Amino acid sequence: MPPHHTASANGLAGAAMVLGVIGLSTSVFIIGGLLGGIGLILGIVALTTAKRTGTGRAKALTGMVTSAIAIVVSVLVAVLFVWYADKTRECYRPDSFQQYRQCVHQQFTGN
């Protein structure tokens, strides 16, 4: 008789899923990409464990997919942030917020 596996037999799969979901929900901040990276690694390890034990495959895949999306979103946010900072670098020393807004408007519209 084969050994009975419980749902907690593949804890890495659960950890990967949790990190992937948290990474995705925080991916607009750079930290989400870091959590997604850890979740992706754990998901890959959990998937190999799931092939051996037969438990946790869905959680491992969910963790891998959400982690990968979190990484992509975080990279896009970082690229957008760098692009915006470069585009508005002349506006960083305004005397007031109104001057900053006017400078940013001028940088984007050319007026």
Account of the 3D structure:
The structure is a single chain. With 111 residues, the chain is mainly alpha-helical. The protein has helices at 11-25, 31-53, 57-87, 97-109. Helix 1 runs antiparallel to helix 2, helix 1 (11-25) packs parallel to helix 3 (57-87) and helix 2 runs antiparallel to helix 3 (57-87). The N and C termini lie far apart (78 Å).
What characteristics describe this protein?
111 residues; mainly alpha; 0% strand; rod-shaped
Layout of helices and strands:
Layout: H1 11-25, H2 31-53, H3 57-87, H4 97-109
Helix pairs in contact: 1-2, 1-3, 2-3
- Element pattern in H and E: HHHH
Global morphology: rod-shaped
Strand content: under 5%
Structural class: mainly alpha
| Helix amount | over 70%
**Number of β-strand runs:** 0
Q: How far do the termini sit from each other?
A: 78 Å
Mean pLDDT: 87
Give a nutshell description of this structure.
Helices cover 74% and strands 0% of the residues. It is mostly helical.
